[in-house]
Amino acid sequence: MRIDTLRQRLRALGAAAGHERSVLRHWACALPQQRRGAREDVLPRALAEALPALEAELDALAALRSEHPAEDGAVRLLVALHDGQTVESVLLPRGGLCVSTQVGCAVGCVFCMTGREGLLRQLGSAEIVAQVALARRRRAVDKVVFMGMGEPAHNLDNVLEAIELLGTAGGIGHKNLVFSTVGDPRAFERLHALGPGVVRPALALSLHSTHAALRAELLPRAPRLSPEDRVEAADAYGRSSGYPIQYQWTLLDGVNDGAEELDGIVRLLKGRYGLLNMIPFNSAPGLPFTRPSWERSKAIAAELSS
Q1: pLDDT tens for residues 239-279?
Q2: Alpha-carbon span 136 to 130, nearest angstrom
Q3: Distance between CA 253 and CA 199 in Å, rounded?
Q4: Closest CA to 210 of 252, 244, 249
Q5: How far is it, in rounded angstroms, from Cα 77 to Cα 287?
Q6: 124 and 162 in contact (C-beta within 8 Å)?
Q7: Is the N or the C terminus of the chain less surrounded, counting Cβ atoms within 10 Å?
Q8: Can you tell me the distance from the alpha carbon of 57 to that of 52, in angstroms, rounded to the nearest whole number?
């Protein structure tokens, strides 16, 4: 389901603009649609009568299948969609939530389990927001990062529609809505084109290497932009939006953690409007990579900070 389709259904039930905003806000903020004596007398009768069934339908867009807590306070949620497919959302420490935008992914990052599955289908914008509503029924969420299963740039219409709703009715600050991409030109173009009065998210760029050949091996089906061109495009958006770019780097032992890569990071990112987030690889069965030692990771951080 798309949010635009939901809006059309609400209008068909007699919702005016204020009623529509109220229903969408209650949904995105995980508030009950029906509170006895509070809303029935201010909503059109047809809409008030339809709300219980509509609320159940929206809840079914993303249902909790299982949860898996981690030592750092994160909780991985296995989420069942209405057609039986599953995706993952992750409750992050300090009020964050990572959501999925596709079932599977077409980019094929060799260090990612999702990339091995290929793309099964897109998520509708309502299914993306439904992950936030599901998480908010468990605890407060004031930041949403679009870094779960899928490449948001491959599902632009639905992702941007979800971002617009979360940044308005969902009550999330625009800088706390983080659009993550491997560096697709379509994403840069659409984000730059967002005009005044439209929610402009922060941007995260998955970099992983400063060498074009190695990056092509790690992200085999990502667009063939050079690392320099990706950083230039991201930096331009960061300066225009006012939100620093979050450069993502998965640390792979013996692959992209050497001195040459660190020199490349300094060369590419020095003076840029952004920050670098280095993420030690999480080992997974069947993937031929390991994370650097904690001592090596600390040494890398210290060197780049000096």
Answers
A1: 999 999 999 999 999 999 999 999 999 999 999 999 999 99
A2: 10
A3: 38
A4: 249
A5: 22
A6: no
A7: C
A8: 9
